[in-house]
Structures are given as C-alpha cells and as structure tokens.
Amino acid sequence: MSNTEFDLSCGALAGADTLPLAWRDGGWVRRAQWRVDVARACALLQGLPAGDVALYDTDCYRACVWLLAAWHAGRCVILPADATPATEAQMRQRAVVLLGEFAGADQCGWARSTCTVPLKPLDPTLRAVAVFTSGSTGEPLCIEKRLAQLNDEMQAQDSVFGATIPADALVVATVSQQHLYGLLFRVIWPLVSGRPFAAQALAFPEALTVAAANVPQVLVSSPAFLKRLPDTLDWAAVAAHHVAIFSSGGPLPAATSDQIRAQCGLAVREIFGSSETGGIAWRDQPSAAWIPLPQVEVALSEDGLLQLRSPYLPSPDWFVTADQAQFDADGQFRLLGRADRIAKIEEKRVSLNALEAALAQTGWMSESRVIVLAGERTELAAAVVLNAAGRAQAQALGHAALGRTLREKLAQRFDPVALPRRWRFVDALPQTSMSKVREQDIKALFDAPVPAARPRYPDITGVSQSSDHVVLQLHIPHNGAHFAGHFVEQGVLPGVTQIDWAVHFARQYFALPPRFCGMDAIKFQNVILPDAHVTLTLDYRVDKQQLNFSYVSEKPQDSARAHSSGRMRFEAA
C-alpha cells in the first residue's frame, strides 16, 4: 500500500520538520533544514538556462538536495557514473547545467545563497532522472524514469521488506547513488518510507562495526564489497548494528551468503534488475529461485529469454531481457546466463562491443575480440590483430608496453574495472570452417599455464577447425619450460614435447578415447627452435580411433618445412 505521507510527489514538503533525513558529519540533518537547502538550490537553478541538468556528487545529502531542487524547478536530472573529463564533455552535449563535483560545474553548492523559492508538490509525470547503461548494442543507452515510476517501485518494494525493518533504521551504503540501484535504495527508498540515510558511503568493511546515531542500520551493498569481508571482521558488532542487508549488481557467491548468515544471522536479500527494467525479483539465498516483485509480470520468450511487463518500464509491452531463464511451477524462476555481450566485472556492466569499438578507433588494429576470463579473479582479456601502424607501435614499444598504452587510451572512456588485463597480439583471430570466431577459441589463446615463470604450452595465434580436422598456428616462446636443459648451446623443442602437445590440443577439440595405446610412423625431420612459428595439423579418424599430427613451418623463401609427424592410437578404458 502506498505511503501517501511520503509520496515522492510531495517532494521536499514530505515529513515533519523534526524528522531526521540524513546522518552527516556525526549529526542529524532534519527535514526542516533539508527544505531550506532545497529551496535555496532551487532558486539558484531558476537563475540558470532552462533544460536538463547533469549531477555528480559523492555526498548523498548534497545529491539529494540537488535532485529535489531540480525536480521542484521542473527539470530532469542526468546521473552519469563518473565525472571524468570525457564524461563531462558528454554531459555538456546533453545538459545545460552541470552540478556537483564536475571540474567545470556551473554550481557546486547553495550555502552562500540567501534566496529561496516556495516549494510546491511535484508532477508525478515529471521526467525525473536519466541514467546510462551499456545496452545490448554496445552503445551507451540513456534510460529515463518518471517521478511516479521511482515512487511506485520503491513503495512496492517497501511493501515486501519494510514491515521487518524499523521505521527509524538508518540506510547505509557501499554503492553510489549515481547508478539506479544506489539511487533507488540509498535515496528514493528512504524518501518514500520516511527512513534516514547516511550521507557518506562506506569505503571499508571495518565501518560496518561502528554504530551511527545509535539506531539500527540497513546495509545497501554489492557482491563486490560483501565477498571481500575479512574473516577477522567483528561479526558480533555487525550483527548488533544491522537489521538487514541488500545486495544487487550481480550474483552473490553462495559462500559469501552462507558466511554472512552464519556469522551474524542475517540473510542477504538479493535484488535482480537492471537500469532498463528497474527491480524484477528478489531472493534471500543464492540457491533459491527468484520471486517476482509486486506488479512485475514475468514469462519466457520464444527464445528462452526472460521477459517482463512492469509499470516501471516506459511501455506496457513485453520487455525481453538478455537473460536466459527457467521457470518453476510456482512462477518463480532461475537464471541460466546472459545471451548478449554485456559482461559484469565487479558488479559493473561492461559492453564488450563498446570496448572493441574503442580499440578499433586507435587505428592500430584490423580487428579485436574482448572476452571474460573466469578464475580466482574475473577479468577481461583482449585478442588483437594489429595492422601496419599497430605493428610499428609493437616494434617500437614491445607488446607489454603496447598493452599498457592501449589500457591508458581505454581509461579515458571506461571505468578501470572495464579495462582488459591480459592481451594477445595475433596474426589472425581463430575461426571455424564457417568463418565464425568462437569464444572458446579466443580463450584458448590465453590458456598457457606458467610454472616458475616458464610457459608449458605454446601461444595459439590462430585456429581453423572442422569436425575432424584442426589447424593451430603456434608461437613457441623462447622461455618455454621444455627448452630448459635441453642442449646448453641451443635450445631445441624435445620430440616428446611435440607429441605431448599434439595429444593435449587434440583432447581440447576432439572426443578422444581416454586410453593411449600406441604410436606409428613417427618422424622427426627438422628441429623446432625457440621463438619459432609453426603450424600443428591434427586429423582424427573416429572409425579407427586414430590421431594424425604434423608440425610444419614456412620460411620466407622456402616451401613448407616439415618438423615432425606421426599417428597415435587410442581406445576406451
């Protein structure tokens, strides 16, 4: 049920004068002071050119004042994710006024202003905020929300969670209000429920153990923060101060959820949604199915993708997401992975298409492919085919320095977590016989285990494959582990290593039987030296369970030069 006393259409007029609004600098800012600040800021805005405003401010109270001042002035507030020079330039093209912490902000504050304007209720249909998302096309999309959509969504969510959270609970956060999740839970939810919020974000886990204002706290956080909580944290203090924990932005690891529940008795409530859709569903443990939020209708599209209808969308039509899903009989659902090229790194959405487009704009490459490498740390990796200008840069700088230079160029447009950490510079991207570039083949370019800083396998610089035939372009690194001790005067790749590599790569591309049972017609004709570029051809005869292999290289003025070849036989265990 809607809380009419704090309906967002009341704007800064909502709530009693003495009701705390924000905890800031060790004391309460009450709603009476907030109203004065909003009236002053609104007066400043009325003296500036009409149009949308762009706001970036790390202080949530200041952001809240500017937000309400803009609404009372009838303006839409654009919320960029950062205040970098590139972002500021983009905002100048979209907004007539920049507010807050931009280097070239038109207004930083209202403290020196003595003018005020009378505040009136707000129009629920007002274009209230605009946020940015990567979007499935790779181009940044501007998502607009009307005042009523913001109000109704958090009123609906409060109807699900609010009864178990004290009315005076302080909302503390580790996330920024510049993103929709942070805006909704850190600003809009406190405003429409009458709860206060903390002006400063929590930067360190230890801050969770400190009581603020001697009231219960609600933590609004993300998996990136929660999964880094140290074992040495004073969990008893966390349990004493907090009554609820929310997480969104990506899936919460089950081990993290279980640890928090065991240590302080709180179930982390995950919220699933996006900038385009708003909130979609919730759950209290990672193994559970997602429960749709009130007024959100969900279903499965013909392509097996999650689709929804919601009053928080700009259209009453079905909105098809890029999330593959499976429904339970009770209408709850489970997510099966993304179907587009939007990755989430540290809970930040990263468009792989946008990164590749930015790399192309350097003028140093003919093509590139960015992928996600999952391991102890999820990171991005880029496989790059350099053009003549790029090869000249590589020759002048070296590949390692070239990778750092490309990262520096991307850092002008992208968040640091969105930058590739690993690079491969190849002659061509691996393709199938149908000229398709597959992610698994790109990942193979980075599959080089390194014991004691010496690679055990060669770099794959190209792949061509059919059902029973694979051709791998290999670069044999000069510091490979197999060169160590194999002839002091000149390293030579051992024949046994060539056989081992043939089997190793064949098992990646063919369903070889598990048991190796013999070799035939093995020939070693010419040695393979460090830093060589060779072609490994693998043919598998399923009917005979036989693998044929050959290593060949080409010299600039010679025909193909054979190094080794042979047949290997396999059988079921």
Automatic annotation (TrEMBL):
Keyword Ligase applies: yes
InterPro entries the UniProt entry points to: AMP-bd_C_sf, AMP-dep_synth/lig_dom, ANL_N_sf, ApeI-like, ATP-dep_AMP-bd_enzyme, HotDog_dom_sf
Domain AMP-dependent synthetase/ligase: 117-299
Enzyme class: ligase
Domain ApeI dehydratase-like residues, every copy: 465-557
Single GO MF annotation: acid-thiol ligase activity
Entry keywords, A to Z: Ligase
This protein's record includes keyword Ligase: yes
Domain of life: Bacteria
EC number: 6.2.1.-
Signal peptide: none
PANTHER family: LONG-CHAIN-FATTY-ACID--COA LIGASE (PTHR43767), NONRIBOSOMAL PEPTIDE SYNTHASE PES1 (EUROFUNG)-RELATED (PTHR43767:SF1)
Protein name: Putative acyl--CoA ligase YhfT
Organism: Amantichitinum ursilacus
Gene this protein is translated from: yhfT
